[in-house]
Amino acid sequence: MIRLAVLDMAGTTVADDGLVELAFTEAVAQVGVAESDPAFPGMLDHVRRTMGESKISVFRTLLDDDESRAQQANAAFERAYAERVGQCTEIDGAAATIRALRDAGVKVALTTGFSETTQRQILDALGWRDLSDLTLTPAQAGRGRPHPDMVLTALLRQGIDDVREVAVVGDTAYDVRAGLRAGASVVAGVLTGAHGRGEFAEAGATHVIESIRDLPGILSTQD
């Protein structure tokens, strides 16, 4: 029986209409990489492929582990995203699904690859501060996806005894890998965000669903 659902935010429960790519473009410009730079297309492709990973980790990779530039770019990314956070909207049915899960006795944790500050801004923009049982970021758990830290931290904080009682849902292969590494029995890829069926199959997802609204139907078969 599933007792905890660990749900990603952007692309899974929250629609941000391309804000990640826009904020990334502004961020790398701050460290000297303009859109006209020959390196820019490859960097943008990396960002698309690593959606779901901790953003500071992405910048470290792109900037050759130059910590000062990575921190500068990450700070610029957070500022650019925050300036437009009001554009974020709920993925249709997400809040109702979360409430239904909680009403059925399933605890819900919302996770993100963003910083705690940005996560709070998104939650405030949507009026979601009290929607879930727990919210987590990579810095609060130790490491970001594809590491299992956020899933396992959610399990510990919510007093769940068995990793098999956990479901993980996200829109990227990184979410899937994190869920599998944590030992969750349901690890679902959702088709409202960055990755598709091919990426989810390659990563080993147990389920692929059209929308977060389909999650309760899956969980009802796990009893």
Automatic annotation (TrEMBL):
InterPro entries: HAD-like_hydrolase_sf, HAD-like_sf, HAD-SF_hydro_IA, HAD_sf, PhnX-like. Coiled coil: none annotated. Pfam families: Hydrolase. PANTHER family: PHOSPHOGLYCOLATE PHOSPHATASE, PHOSPHONOACETALDEHYDE HYDROLASE. This is Phosphonatase-like hydrolase. It comes from Saccharopolyspora taberi. The lineage of its organism: Bacteria, Bacillati, Actinomycetota, Actinomycetes, Pseudonocardiales.
